[in-house]
Amino acid sequence: DTEVTQTPKHLVMGMTNKKSLKCEQHMGHRAMYWYKQKAKKPPELMFVYSYEKLSINESVPSRFSPECPNSSLLNLHLHALQPEDSALYLCASSQGTGEGPEAFFGQGTRLTVV
Amino acid sequence: EDQVTQSPEALRLQEGESSSLNCSYTVSGLRGLFWYRQDPGKGPEFLFTLYSAGEEKEKERLKATLTKKESFLHITAPKPEDSATYLCAVQGSSNTGKLIFGQGTTLQVKP
Description:
The complex is a heterodimer of chains A (114) and B (111). Chain A has 114 residues and is mainly beta.
């Protein structure tokens, strides 16, 4: 089973709202990722968690706050977003971060900020 | 700086018309080169991992090959259901798990 589950599938939020995106995997993977994808562009890395610790933050604004409660779960907390933050947010997981293991992606959350 | 360039940007084929997609890369210490398929509004679907020059992988109508500078995704006798955007990505030697993606090739196969 190579499934990464993301909820919700769609989210519309106002600029003053607080919301959270959730991601879950049961493959025993030790690395989890958040990517952002704008229309007709490739995914861009936001955060990397390795063994439940944040290992990479790609200079993401503080209005995005990641959290890894355990090795199977990854959350992305959203607060005071801007319309330009509207995008497809993708979660991924892999066995680890070294030796080129493949990453498996979820179906994404389509976020619209109004 | 690690970089991935895919060509062509878009490709239209007739059903049954074989072709190849190109992925050129520069990376310091290749850990892996990955091919993904992405349908509109969906997450990327993993297809192949290639680790070293000369390696080949096959899955149904798709075959991926790797040299020291580029990778090809060969599509043999494509069907309309093969229509999608194909993404190439590399992981370098930093051991961070970070994937560097190309811009993708959008393939349309007409019946």
